[in-house]
UniProtKB/TrEMBL annotation:
TM segment ranges: 20-39, 59-77, 89-107, 113-135, 147-164, 170-194, 206-225, 240-260, 267-288, 294-312
GO cellular component: membrane
PANTHER family membership: SOLUTE CARRIER FAMILY 35
Organism: Ceratodon purpureus (Fire moss)
The protein's name: Sugar phosphate transporter domain-containing protein
Limits of the Sugar phosphate transporter domain: 24-311
Pfam (any one): TPT
UniProt-listed InterPro entries: EmrE-like, Sugar_P_trans_dom, TPT_transporter
Lineage: Eukaryota, Viridiplantae, Streptophyta, Embryophyta, Bryophyta
Protein location: Membrane
Keywords of the record: Membrane, Transmembrane, Transmembrane helix
Topology with respect to the bilayer: Multi-pass membrane protein
């Protein structure tokens, strides 16, 4: 009796420990993601730090990530490089992904100059729509009228939120929507170019391979767009504390994504992302003093409910798939047991001479 009580107590404490760790991972990811967004807004916004150079900021992030990833992989050897990475694979897979990643970061960081943090988070609710639509186009997802209805609902909610936006800026919206589309294409290409070949990279090796390519791609628009403007700023001096801290938080965010997905699931991160978005909207309204209208909240509320239903449907589909795998495995094992039983009965039915001959 005492042993049973001890076993039950240890099981409950183990479950409690897992729950606490899961919430810890979620909390760290939300904090780092929240910090990167607010920090980038602070640097790029003309009314705050007033350094409106998104390409330069993104290049600083990529240079920092490249250097730190190189140290972790090649010098300290904390992480091993991918054994399957070849020159051909790098050029065919990593380079296109790096191009899309650089464009996504460039466009999304540029949007902070023109739009409020709260409105940007509302526009990001369109990410499932873009990922699913591209997945259907590239035949990585199966078309479903129910899912498409859900995607349309999300789009309508975001459209209502945009209609009620007090600081609507067409160029800013174009930049953010472009960032969503490019990022969705990057995620789909990762499935096609890497995951389908059985290649998986953790965030450190991903940055080790992708960040240098991003830096090179960004150097071209930087040279023609921002470099001439920076030359005119004769009084500007690099603030190593501000940009160094900003880059370190961005690097840690990539690590936290790997830990969160590895210890929980991608679905958990999606749900945590919804919580983070509401926190950012509240922070943007109460601290940064961005205006959030009632129509904003109604529209985003519709999109929010549709995104929640989409995540719920994905969870149910994952459970059904797992159940189907277990059932299929049980059926296979049962068939093997029946076959063994039939063979045993057949051997018993054979005359002794046949058994000896065998």
């Amino acid at each position: 009796m005492a042993k049973g009580g001890t076993s039950a107590g240890s099981n409950s404490s183990g479950v409690l420990r897992k729950v606490i760790l899961s919430y810890t991972y979620v909390g760290i990811w939300i904090f780092l993601s929240f910090s990167v967004i607010i920090f980038n807004k602070y640097i790029l916004d003309r009314k705050m730090y007033n350094w409106p150079y998104p390409v330069s900021l993104t290049m600083i992030h990529m240079a920092f990530s490249s250097g730190l990833a190189f140290l972790l992989v090649r010098v300290f050897k904390i992480v091993e490089p991918s054994a399957s990475m070849t020159r051909d694979l790098y050029l065919r897979s990593i380079v296109p992904i790096g191009l899309l990643f650089s464009l996504s970061l460039w466009f999304s960081n540029s949007a902070y100059i023109y739009l409020s943090v709260s409105f940007i988070q509302m526009l990001k609710a369109l990410m499932p729509v873009a990922v699913y639509s591209l997945g259907v186009i590239f035949k990585k997802d199966v078309f479903s009228s129910q899912t498409m209805t859900n995607m349309v609902t999300i789009s309508i909610g975001v459209a209502i939120a945009a209609y009620g936006e007090a600081r609507f800026n067409l160029w800013g919206v174009t930049l953010q929507l472009s960032a969503v589309c490019v990022e969705a294409l990057r995620l789909v290409l990762i499935q096609i170019l890497l995951n389908s070949r059985g290649i998986s990279l953790n965030p450190i090796t991903t940055l080790y391979y992708v960040a240098p390519a991003c830096f090179l791609f960004l150097s071209l628009p930087w040279y023609f767009i921002e470099y001439p403007k920076l030359l005119e700023m004769s009084t500007f001096e690099i603030d190593f504390m501000t940009f160094g801290l900003n880059s370190m938080i961005a690097f840690l965010l990539n690590i936290s994504v790997f830990v969160l997905v590895g210890k929980t699931s991608a679905l958990t991160m999606n749900v945590a992302g919804v919580v983070k978005d509401w926190l950012l909207i509240a922070f943007s309204w109460s601290v940064i003093m961005d205006k959030v209208t009632t129509i904003n909240l109604i529209g985003y509320g519709i999109a929010f409910m549709a995104v929640c239903y989409y995540n719920y449907a994905k969870l149910q589909a994952m459970k059904a798939k797992d159940t189907q795998k277990v059932t299929s495995k049980d059926d296979e094992e049962e068939n093997l047991r029946l076959l063994d039983s039939k063979l045993e009965r057949l051997e018993e039915a054979l005359p002794p001479t046949h058994k000896n001959g065998a």
